[in-house]
């Protein structure tokens, strides 16, 4: 990984320049120090998403602002040509397929005392969101049938008068 000051993304470069120039320094030596600074002062702490989620479950005064800057997965490092690599791959795949990893994550992550956070992402449309459309369509259909009947009666009456 390249340092942020050498990033090809201008946003990251600007963030680094701003943070580097601040006095007193905005950098901390540990996650615990960063979280303590967030809780005790006007400070925002950039933290890896998994750790952020873990600490937010343990302390209800912490919150995540905005979305993720970047997403990465985790891996298990092994020496090249390790005989255990295939066994680990198969075991992890099996745990994923059985949903066991998600169950373990919920057990350890959501074991905190904080109430569930509201999900602010866009939700799918449900019947309560689009039910009004059907009411308008049905009312329009009824009005259209009524108008068609009036027009039919009108044309029928005028055709009888023209025949006489």
Topology:
Elements: H1 10-21, H2 31-40, H3 49-58, H4 85-97, H5 100-109, H6 127-163
In the CATH scheme, what's the topology name of the largest domain? D-Maltodextrin-Binding Protein, domain 2
So what's the CATH class of the largest domain? Alpha Beta
Q: Please provide the ordered H/E string of secondary-structure elements.
A: HHHHHH
Distance between the termini: 94 Å
Question: What is the number of independent domains?
Answer: 3
Principal-axes shape call: elongated
Strand content: under 5%
Counting DSSP H or I runs of 4 or more residues, the number of helices is 6
Annotated CATH homologous superfamily of the largest domain: Periplasmic binding protein-like II
Quick one: how many beta strands?
0
Helix content: 55-70%
What does the largest sheet look like? none
- Provide mean pLDDT, rounded: 83
Q: What CATH architecture of the largest domain do you see?
A: 3-Layer(aba) Sandwich
Low-pLDDT sequence parts = none
Spatial extent as radius of gyration: 31 Å
What is the structural class?
mainly alpha
Keywords: Glycoprotein, Ion channel, Ion transport, Ligand-gated ion channel, Membrane, Receptor, Transmembrane, Transmembrane helix, Transport
Transmembrane segments: 130-154
Membrane topology: Multi-pass membrane protein
Protein name: GRIK4 protein
């Amino acid at each position: 990984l390249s340092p942020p000051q050498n990033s090809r993304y201008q946003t990251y470069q600007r963030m680094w320049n701003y943070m580097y120039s601040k006095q007193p320094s905005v950098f901390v030596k540990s996650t615990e120090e960063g979280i303590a600074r967030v809780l005790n002062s006007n400070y925002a702490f950039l933290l890896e998403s998994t750790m952020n989620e873990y600490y937010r479950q343990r302390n209800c005064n912490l919150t995540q602002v905005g979305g993720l800057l970047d997403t990465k997965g985790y891996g298990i490092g092994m020496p090249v040509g390790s005989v255990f690599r295939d066994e680990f791959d198969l075991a992890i795949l099996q745990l994923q397929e059985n949903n066991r990893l998600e169950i373990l994550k919920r057990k350890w992550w959501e074991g905190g005392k904080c109430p569930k956070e509201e999900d602010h992402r866009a939700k799918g449309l449900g019947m309560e969101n689009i039910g009004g459309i059907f009411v308008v369509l049905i009312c329009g259909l009824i009005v259209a049938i009524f108008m068609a009947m009036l027009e039919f009666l009108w044309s029928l009456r005028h055709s009888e008068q023209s025949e006489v």
